[in-house]
Amino acid sequence: MLLKDSKLKIALFLSVIIAVGLGTFIGVYFVAINNQGDHNKVAPEDFGNIVLIKPSFPETVLDEEAGISIYTDIGQPLDLSVASAEYKTIEELTSDYVIGSLSLPNLPETEDIHCFVHKDGWIVVYYLKAEPVSKVIDWNWYSAGSLTKTKLNIGLEKMYLALGVTPPSTNFYHFQFPHANKWMIIIEALDESGTDTFNLQIPTEFTFYERSWSHYADGRSRFYLDDIQISYLIGNPVTAYDELTPAQLIPDEFHTISLQVLGYSPYLGRVAIVLLYLEP
Question: Do residues 215 and 241 touch, judged by C-beta distance below 8 A?
Fold first, then answer.
């Protein structure tokens, strides 16, 4: 989905909502105030009630090793030998399924993704449980206020094209947090030298299982949370990501996220806050 850019971009999965100025805050909301003083309130239900859904196949090794994932049921048998030929490395091969790693275009080996293919038609693409959810962000697919694909989507596409199939539908799921039913990506971007800031408040009514971030620079950029430097990047381009502690992003308190782009071309900076949570 591609919508017009805004000073503050808020997205759930790949759906981007433009925050609009409003008056009084009421009810349960994720609240953001940008650096020009505009008040923005975004109700989670405004994102179309997109949820994390547990897959229906029996327990597998994925329950032990997988974290954030995208999956599909093709609804027809799959040839494991064809799937195996697509892997960069095969990690496990049985008569029922194969697991391996896939390289992703225009990304280093550290961003390789894991893929599970079952002979009955299941394809699951995932990162390991120790890796933050924010690792899924591929900044190559961010443009004009829209994040159109994640690394999960790209890995899934690579496998189903190799198998010559088309998924009827896809869902997201985190294997280590089965009660989490939603996740949100909040993005700030700068295409010039300077600083952009917004304040974020998350509600106590929700249970947050992970708070993480991704920072991108093409040039030089700093990312601050509540005036504490979280990341400083120099590169053409370079990306970093990690988790935040609950103490760094406490519910019902305003937290200031600042993105700074420093003074030499090409002047590009991006930062994302990623929230994995249970909405009651």
Answer: yes
Q: Which of 109, 103, 120 is nearest to 159 (CA)?
A: 103
Pair type for strands 207-225 and 255-261: antiparallel
According to DSSP, residue 175 is labeled: T
- Model confidence pLDDT, tens digit, residues 227-266: 999 999 999 899 999 999 999 999 999 999 999 999 877 7
Residue span(s) of the chain under CATH 2.60.120 come to 9-51+180-278
State pLDDT tens for residues 154-187.
Answer: 999 999 999 999 999 999 999 999 999 999 889 8
Residues 219-255 as b or e (16 or more Cβ within 10 Å = b): bbbbbbbeeeebbebeeeeebbbebbeeeebeeeeeb
> Element (H or E) spanning 233, and its range?
strand 228-244
Listed in order, the ranges of the chain carrying CATH 3.30.310 are 62-174
DSSP alpha helices (H): ranges in 147-225? 151-163
Cβ atoms of residues 34 and 8 within 8 Å: yes
Q: What is the CATH architecture assignment of 9-51+180-278?
A: Sandwich (2.60)
